[in-house]
Amino acid sequence: MPGSPREGRGMTDPDDAARRILRGNDRGGYTVPTAGLYPYQWNWDSVFAAMGFATFDTDRAWQEVETLLSGQWPNGMVPHILFHKVEPTYFPGPDVWGGVGPVPSSGISQPPIAATFIRWLAELDPAGADRAKAMVGPLTDWHRWFFDWRGEGGAICVSHPWETGRDNSPDWDAPFAAIEPANLDAYYRRDTSHVAEDERPRRWDYDRYLTLVKLGHDCGWDEAHLREVSPFRVADPTMTFTLLRANRDLLALAQRFGAETAEIEDWIAAIEAGSERLWNADIGAYDTFDMRAGTHSGVISNASFLNWYAGVRPERMLDHFDRIAGFLPYGVPSADPQQPGFEPKRYWRGPVWAMMNWLIALGLRDAGHDARATALCDTTRSMILAGGFAEYFDPRDASPAGGRDFTWTAATWLAWAS
Ligand code: 9YW
Fold first, then answer.
1. What's the pLDDT at 182?
2. How far does the centroid of ligand 1 lie from the alpha carbon of residue 108, in Å?
3. Rounded-to-integer distance, Cα 230 and Cα 223, Å
């Protein structure tokens, strides 16, 4: 449960504390995001965990990603959660999801950052070349799954907000308002027994999350069917931009190891063009586009700033970045503080996520915006030193929120922010 608002202050050896968090969350071959609240293997969390491990144990880093890919479905999808062994502290568990892969799992994916960081790991650890080479095929199959089932003219859609990793962003308010929860069994949330209620999604959101899970479960996660019938199909900057970057890095891996490249080159060209569908000229920003309603959300989120990470349009989003940086001491907030819907403590409706800052800063650096990249790294460092290794932080004062001893915050510290 939440500690004092300044629980990070006074950490005598933050590097050692971060390593101890990774070791403590290691369940043998995979790492949980945090004990209790998230007791399973999450997809993009594991990739960040691997990068943290890479700073002191490269073998364990490779193993983390290998365990993640061991859950890949026959259709290529790599699930967002792998339920290696049942833990009663989390809901919804494997029975509710009914995933159809080799390991009990959820039925949706998560932002595909793996190829990007596997490339990085392969450069850091030349002895791991064979392990990287073995991942090129599975990664290609996973990226093809996105392209085949989630592509809409090169923009990449999600079938559930959980797939973006930005669960209760204001981006989903409008598409969720169009969903009437139906035939839901009574359920008991576990998250609010670990974390204060005002830092978590509302019941209104959970009713709709579970409606969509039930829909997928009831059709055996048949993507062709879901594409036709699901009320929720939203093109998303997290997915579109991370997949575009991931394809660039997969291409480099494929070239290095002599694998086929033509298909990957086609995906890159298609997604570069498709990312334009996320440009909302009315607000001069990237946002989500609801395929069912034919409307942009109008929400500026931290995912809106991943265009640099994807290598598209380096001149865009700078004004919004500077405006928000001038408004709040700690950025980048998960929702624009000058838009309605901003809630500085409620999860993806305002708080800052250190790992998102890392992705944004990587992009800023690649785009040549060095001063901003350095400034973002500096504020992330002071935020963690002030608040500890929390799941997320209040952008007004860096006070910690959500889960504690959090894997991806510790990993982000070790691999980037320290
Ligand atoms: C949930 C594990 C996951 C992250 C997501 C985050 C949250 C889980 O935790 O989702 O039950 O809502 O939103 O990005 O991968 O850290």
1. 82
2. 13
3. 10
pLDDT of residue 30: 98
Burial of 156 (C-beta count, 10 Å sphere; 0-12/13-18/19+): buried
Tens digits of residue pLDDT in 195-215: 999 999 999 999 999 999 999
Cβ proximity of 9 and 389 under 8 Å: no
Q: pLDDT per residue over 389-408, tens digit each?
A: 999 999 999 999 999 999 99
Q: Is 146 in the pocket of ligand 1 (CB under 6 A)?
A: no
- Where do the domains of the chain lie, and which CATH numbers do they carry? 14-417 (1.50.10.10)
Q: Contact 167/98 with Cβ under 8 angstroms?
A: no
| Pair 72, 143: CB distance under 8 Å | no
Contact present, 299 and 246 (Cβ < 8 Å): no
Q: Looking at 191, 223, 391, 394, which residue is catalytic?
A: 391
Q: Single out the residue of 134, 4, 114 nearest to residue 61, CA to CA.
A: 114
Q: How many whole angstroms separate alpha carbon 30 and alpha carbon 60?
A: 9
45 lines ligand 1 (CB under 6 A): yes
Q: How far out from the chain centre does Cα 147 lie?
A: 18
Q: What are phi and psi of 350, to 5 degrees?
A: 165, -40
Buried b (16+ CB within 10 A) or exposed e, 209-235: bbbbbbbbbebebebeebeeebebbbb
319 is catalytic: no
Q: What is the pLDDT of residue 9?
A: 64
Q: Which residues contact 87 (CB under 8 A, 6 or more apart)?
A: 39, 40, 93
Q: Which residue has its alpha carbon closest to ligand 1 atom 7?
A: 165
Active site residue 64: no
